Hints:
- The protein is α+β, with helices and mostly antiparallel strands.
- The protein has helices at 12-15, 21-30, 41-55, 87-90, 92-98, 101-111, 197-210; strands at 32-34, 82-85, 115-126, 137-140, 155-160, 171-174, 217-219, 228-231, 236-238, 247-256, 298-301.
- Strands 1, 2, 3, 5, 8, 10 and 11 form a seven-stranded antiparallel sheet that branches. The chain has a four-stranded antiparallel sheet with strand order 4-9-6-7.
Amino acid sequence: MMPDTGEFTLTDAERDLLPSAADVSHYAAHGWYLSGKLLDDDETGALLAASERFYAGERDRVLPVRPPNLAYWEPGDGPVQRHNDYIHYESAEIARILRKPVIGAVAARLARASEIRVFQATLIYKPPASGEITNLVPWHADRHYWQTCTSERMLTAFIPFHDCGVEMGTITMADGSNQWPDIAADDSTRHFAQRDRDELDAIVQETARRSGAQVTAVPMVIPKGHMSFHSCLVYHGSGHNVSGRPRRAISLHLQDGENRWRPFRRPDGSQVVYNHDVVVRRTPEGTPDYGDPEYCPVLWRG
């Protein structure tokens, strides 16, 4: 990532793209927000080109160690849905674009935070294969995988490199589920790819029932250069890509400046370890530093 200069400014045109008070209220109630055009065509084109170079083997730097639950597609994995964590660390060009201040400024307003840092960034490629089981992403809430974080204001920007609609298997929200009680099972810290889809669907249905609600799926129809933002508390997923073209995107996970590491144990007593815990620097107290600028740089402050 580029160094943090401590200077974060917006143009007048970018200020006009910030969420309004009504938008912030909608996000709080529903758990999601669709932005205006935050990236121009040159920037989305650069993301696409950089992702192709990455898939061809180009790296500006590589992780010093391999974390225990790293999502990292390699050519030998075949034509499945691709996920590559830490793309903001390994690709300088992608990092440069993700550091655009207006992205952090939008997130800060939605999260009601004075500072926004990167938490994780994952490059995603959903192949145009209607029968590919890995293309189906079941309902899940990111907070369940971020139990070593103190914050519940964390959020994600989903950034497609092209127009992204239902036919491409766009990200889809369970509307308002950020307001539901959490009845996740004891093993909720396990990633959705490691769990049974029917079990996850049953959890969402039961959570909605206890809240007196129904599961209302809202697919995010996202024009090129726009992006969706969703709360870490909202259930979301995605379907098959039947468009005939690959769906290319980045999930940019973001944390407010107050977020810190905390110890978290499963019911069996085992310690939850997030991937950062083995790569980031340590605080003076010896705990993982989720503010390490090498992996979690500041996107916005102000």
